[in-house]
């Protein structure tokens, strides 16, 4: 199955596969939720041959491990589980130990790291050694959501496959197919926050952020002189939102501000750009900081409300 937007990456991959010399390291770059991991697995199967489904002895996958023993038990039971935030050097070293032996079923082996931009710094340095001197018949596929976080020396040793963002109408078609019971308002919120990623849009749809989207757009458009909308925003996000919902709220606010930039006159753009920068800062900190959820949603609401208040615009 070829996902929407994957036509060109597949063309490049299969042309290389049919060539005389296949590059040993590939960097799959694009937004989270665009289907890069699925591409990596299918490409790896084409590379090594063998069964088209199930585990493959010559495909090594490194990703986030369960956070602790309790979460590992959940994983083993097939339940949702929390993961560690990074891929560790121990995982890289275990992979490198496997590479000292020959492939099991053929003469090729594939190593998938998903996502490579979550490697610990020591793990990145250890991986670099394998990329500099790859074992015969070993090929690396590195999935990267934020390619700029990778070491330049890692990027320089990889051939980059770029996965494009999808248009709104393409994402809407996917949402209608995958979530046929969804209403127009939640779909619109999911598309607005997706950044061109259908996987992100589906995640947002599952979180039920349609009301948040409407309130955020109102804050940007008309402000909040009596704090009513900010209060409603806090209620909509919930008293104790988990980290996923907090991150989703920040991303949704960023998309609302980005969309507003397309529809305003030039004097308002500096204020919008400043708010967007602040939201980007929050987005960068949120995965590792322990924000108070109430203070976080009020900060988001206040940034948006300032944009809707002419007194908040330096050039209004």
Describe the structure.
The protein has 316 residues and is an alpha/beta fold. The protein has helices spanning 7-18, 36-48, 69-76, 89-98, 121-132, 152-156, 168-178, 184-194, 198-207, 210-222, 228-237, 243-261, 269-285, 293-308; strands at 25-29, 59-62, 109-113, 138-144, 159-162. It folds into 2 domains: 7-162, 3-Layer(aba) Sandwich (Rossmann fold); 209-312. 53% of the residues lie in helices and 8% in strands. The protein has a 5-stranded parallel sheet, sandwiched between helices. β3 (109-113), α5 (121-132) and β4 form a beta-alpha-beta unit. The longest helix is centred in the last third of the chain and has 19 residues, at 243-261. The N and C termini lie far apart (51 Å). Pfam families: DNA_pol3_delta2 (PF13177). This is DNA polymerase III subunit delta.
State the CATH superfamily name of the largest domain: P-loop containing nucleotide triphosphate hydrolases
Overall CATH class of the largest domain: Alpha Beta
Indicate the structural class: alpha/beta
**Topology, number of strands:** 5
CATH topology of the largest domain: Rossmann fold
What is the terminal-to-terminal distance?
A: 51 Å
Strands side by side in the biggest sheet: 2-3-4-1-5
Largest sheet: 5 strands, parallel
The chain-level mean pLDDT equals 87
Weakly predicted, low-confidence segments: 311-316
Question: How many domains?
Answer: 2
Topology as a string of helices (H) and strands (E): HEHEHHEHEHEHHHHHHHH
Percentage beta strand: 5-15%
Pfam families: DNA_pol3_delta2 (PF13177)
GO cellular component, one term: DNA polymerase III complex
InterPro entries: DNA_Rep/Repair_Clamp_Loader, P-loop_NTPase
Protein name: DNA polymerase III subunit delta
